[in-house]
């Protein structure tokens, strides 16, 4: 992890809808207690058991927010890209957050992190900040519930098809640089289950498998599986 020294104000103006509702002093305080950090792909950033990190604004790259079982199985709840904010990393000021989450960088990532004490003071004094944080946190819980619902109630072929299509759209490529283990981790499944389904997709000429990558050869079939 590294630190950058860029000016925070332009990013707050662009991405925080409550910026114009702050006094000039509050704006200065928000900037002064925020810092930029750079993380490399796969860096671990946060867990609920660790120190309260603060509010995270993604400037570049991508974060993966996930939960982990006692036997180290992981379930991805959602991802955050440039311009998106993570409030679940501020559990010490939102007492209603009682479940453990972890955050990791899925790509080389730059974050603008605002210290927790600063955000707590803003929430206490400014109702616009408080409303933003609680609304954003509720939306994050909605995303998490959707992910868990998919795991509980969707067939695995649909989940895998949806994942491959989503990753293809996100990366703007039909060739995904990933492993069966990474897919399993993101879908909260076993690697063997993922490998079996990918081999079936390959047999059906929907994908082409090679070491460290999955190439989608028939995206229309994946869409059909997802809709079926």
Automatic annotation (TrEMBL):
Establish whether keyword DNA-binding is in the entry: yes
The record, for SMART domains, names: cNMP, HTH_CRP
What keyword terms does UniProt attach to this protein?
DNA-binding, Transcription, Transcription regulation
The domain of life for this entry's organism is Bacteria
Q: Where is the Cyclic nucleotide-binding domain?
A: 18-140
What CDD domains does the record tag this protein with?
Answer: CAP_ED
Q: Which residues form the HTH crp-type domain?
A: 154-220
Q: InterPro entries per the record?
A: cNMP-bd_dom (IPR000595), cNMP-bd_dom_sf (IPR018490), Env_Response_Regulators (IPR050397), HTH_CRP (IPR012318), RmlC-like_jellyroll (IPR014710), WH-like_DNA-bd_sf (IPR036388), WH_DNA-bd_sf (IPR036390)
> Which Pfam family, giving just one, matches this sequence?
cNMP_binding
Membrane-crossing residues? none
**PANTHER family, per this entry?**
CRP FAMILY TRANSCRIPTIONAL REGULATORY PROTEIN (PTHR24567), HTH-TYPE TRANSCRIPTIONAL REGULATOR ARCR (PTHR24567:SF74)
Q: What is this protein called?
A: Crp/Fnr family transcriptional regulator
